[in-house]
């Protein structure tokens, strides 16, 4: 089998995972790549850009867009922008102050409008400290996320086992307790989650844990009943 850093999930859809520790917890992270109808590449939540990864991405086509989708998934945006200087760097508005070292060509807006339509639709989830925009790739029926949930997050170290146990995310797709605390205006957040559930997706790509290959809509609905029920 060819040693590759990219995994093809569907036509014009790839992911690349990498290890990442947050406060000692092994959460991992994942970048998503979509080839748009104009043949340019859309990179979501970049990971560290090694020479090997860059070579593999370049073989897919020219990188046109680099997206930092929320206030926390920006760590390697600068590396990606350096690797592909002709690409447009798009970020969550709050990153302008948080990452003064970066030049953002445009900002993700709360309106949910998408410059990548009709290939990719977007929806901002309001009422949280995450300020995350979710994306829908209709051609592959895939919801592309960062911190909306976690799936089967596991680890051999004690801190990770404690995190998954206390957060209720051991070997399951769920919203951990820590992320639930990020929702401040639950009614506004629930309204946006309902809009996301209107999309016809089956697969969910997450930054933390395993990709959920099928049953994504049912899993997302079940994992957000605590929020949707309060705002019904």
Keywords:
232 residues; alpha/beta; Metallo-beta-lactamase, Chain A; 7-stranded mixed sheet; 4-stranded mixed sheet; 8 helices; 15 strands
Write structural notes for this entry.
With 232 residues, the chain is of the alpha/beta class. It has a single domain (7-228), classed as 4-Layer Sandwich (Metallo-beta-lactamase, Chain A). 25% of the residues lie in helices and 25% in strands. The protein has 8 helices and 15 strands. The chain has helices at 51-60, 77-83, 95-98, 158-167, 177-180, 186-197, 216-223, 225-228; strands at 7-10, 13-18, 21-22, 25-26, 29-35, 41-44, 63-68, 88-91, 106-107, 120-124, 133-137, 142-144, 150-151, 173-174, 203-205. Strands 1-2-5-6-7-8-9 form a 7-stranded mixed sheet. It has a 4-stranded mixed sheet with strand order 10-11-12-15, covered by helices on one side. The protein has a two-stranded antiparallel ribbon with strand order 3-4. The radius of gyration is 17 Å and the shape is globular. The chain starts with 6 loop residues before the first strand and ends with a helix.
